[in-house]
From TrEMBL:
Keyword ATP-binding attributed: no
Domain Leucine-rich repeat-containing N-terminal plant-type: 28-67
Subcellular location: Membrane
Phylogenetic classification of the source organism: Eukaryota, Viridiplantae, Streptophyta, Embryophyta, Tracheophyta
Stored PANTHER family: SOMATIC EMBRYOGENESIS RECEPTOR KINASE 1
Source organism per UniProt: Erythroxylum novogranatense
Membrane topology classification: Single-pass membrane protein
Protein name: Leucine-rich repeat-containing N-terminal plant-type domain-containing protein
Domain of life: Eukaryota
Length: 175
């Protein structure tokens, strides 16, 4: 009996240590980034109720999709009655491919750090109250030029574009 415990304990110790390490580098970082978004938004319909930052990772949260490595690939929050501002922490979602936030009341600017997500494929920010410049560098440089109809969003104006789905590598829909 003692023999068995002595054999099992060290590997159990390393397993727990490895798990805590993984938890810290993958799960928490992306969960924290999304939680930063949540705390920055007003959510009258409680769409983000399942976004519990104490969970190991955000992969079980509603409106969030992960890959097999438990890294976030999709955020689907269109038509969610959300208001408030986007957060630069979204730039930490390094495997994000699809970010849909259309038809809300988001204000403020598009975080420049979104340009640092190389995997970003579809970005739909249409029908919001965003202002300022649309980034053109980094991952945004590969969005189709025709989708940048409103390159410089004038402060105070709401420019509404129809939802556009281009048959190309990347899609950006501004407001
Ligand atoms: C959005 O929230 C407001 C309250 O803030 C509410 O009056 C309205 O009905 C909501 N719209 C939808 C589509 O849920
Ligand atoms: C936006 O949401 C409203 C309800 O809040 C809905 O009536 C409208 O059709 C939506 N618009 C688009 C473009 O999805
Ligand atoms: C794009 O430019 C902005 C400044 O305008 C900068 O903050 C951001 O890091 C740049 N992105 C990349 C991928 O270089």
């Amino acid at each position: 009996m003692t023999m068995v415990i002595e054999q099992v304990m060290p590997s159990l110790f390393w397993l727990i240590l490895a798990f805590q390490f993984l938890h810290r580098v993958t799960g928490n970082a992306e969960g924290d980034a999304l939680n930063a978004l949540k705390t920055n938004l007003a959510d009258p319909n409680n769409i983000l109720q399942s976004w519990d930052p104490t969970l190991v990772n955000p992969c079980t949260w509603f409106h969030v999709t992960c890959n097999s490595q438990n890294s976030v690939t999709r955020i689907d929050l269109g038509d969610a009655n959300l208001s408030g501002q986007l957060v630069s922490q979204l730039g930490q979602l390094s495997n994000l491919q699809y970010l849909r936030l259309n038809n809300n009341s988001l204000s403020g600017t598009i975080p420049m750090l979104l340009t640092t997500i190389p995997s970003l494929q579809v970005l739909d920010l249409s029908n919001n109250k965003l202002v300022g410049d649309v980034p053109v560098n980094g991952s945004f440089s590969l969005f189709t030029p025709i989708s940048f109809v409103t390159k410089s969003l004038k402060i105070g104006t709401i420019i509404i574009l129809a939802r556009i789905n281009y048959n190309c590598d990347k899609t950006y829909v501004g407001n």
